[in-house]
Amino acid sequence: MADWSKLPYDIIHKVATYLISIEDFLAFSAVCSSWRSVYLTKQWHQHPQVPLLMLCDNENSSARSFISLYRNKVYKSELPEACGRRCWGSSSGWLVTLGNDLKIHLLNPFTRVSENLPPKSSLHIHFGEILDWYEIIEKAFVFKKPCSTSHANEDEDLLVMIIYGPLKQLAFCRPGYSSWKSIKDSSHAGFIDVTYVKDQIIALCDMGSLVVIDIDGLSVIDINGPHPPEHIALSFPQWDWDQLFLVESSGDLWMVYQNCTSNRRRSSNDQSMEFVAYSFDFNKKRWIRMSNLGNHAIFVSDNFSMSIHAPDRFNCKSNCIYFVGKEMERRWPYREVTVDVGVYTVTDGNSEPLCRGPQFPLYYSFPIWVMPTLR
What we know:
With 375 residues, this protein is mostly beta strands. The chain is 6% helix and 38% strand. It has a 5-stranded mixed β-sheet with strand order 21-20-22-23-24, with no helix packed on it. A 4-stranded antiparallel β-sheet has the order 3-2-1-25, with no helix packed on it. A 4-stranded antiparallel β-sheet has the order 4-5-6-7, with no helix packed on it. It comes from Rehmannia glutinosa. This is F-box protein. Pfam families: Beta-prop_KIB1-4 (PF03478), F-box-like (PF12937).
């Protein structure tokens, strides 16, 4: 029998270059110590990936389960750093976590590298606003090497932004900051979503306006004229099922409208999910409805959204939207959570369910998309 550990390092490294998924690379590194040396030195060119679905937290368990669409299997991994904490994913692979200790962390779930973020006490939440710990942050985003004239150091290449509090304010920080920096904006009601397009951080505000975030000036710059298409009813507050998502796609700015139509008078289960995608024309300052997504798939949830080019190589479907929808009933003293996980085909409007994990998600823990990365 061949002794794989005796292969020269150059050949081992050559074999690794043919692996396209992180799941395969991690399995490759487990063969023997000499193969693991390639993993430890990170001498592997990471190809574009597709997100894994991290399932809900099981109370009193230090492990989390991840569904791979690529391998159509469930991986279980020790991740005590996320136990009992609400998590938000990001397109850069990092998680933002918050626990009932009110400590906020940045966590890579695959390398288990963790960074402390500024405390909740540095957020400008107005006096008198009563929030449960898991409601403090509405959404979280992690961007790699965002535009900034005052931060050219590669050690500071991560920017964390959060939408927080009932007023949906926006703040940001970098690892090592002692406090969150709030964006000053008195002309808009609040923020809905944020993305990074063409070296600009772009945010969608309540009532549909688009703004560019100036992190150096702690301010916003209006993009003239952009509002969601007129037939989208924007009456706030919306149902949790009806949402707008910003998506960066190969340098373009897309928006996805998720509409859950239901006859709530008859049954809360009498529902159908519909998605409509739009592309923003920066020259004409208007949204254009898209008839299809071409050779792309979109992943959306209330934690982050992203577009994947040519997803078929990972056993995902092009021209589809993979979604995680949730609805919370806030009846004191209980929190009832309903979660819907599936894939929506743009051409025919049909949805197919995907595994969502535990039947009854915890009030602070829902399935989320997690982009795997080793960096």
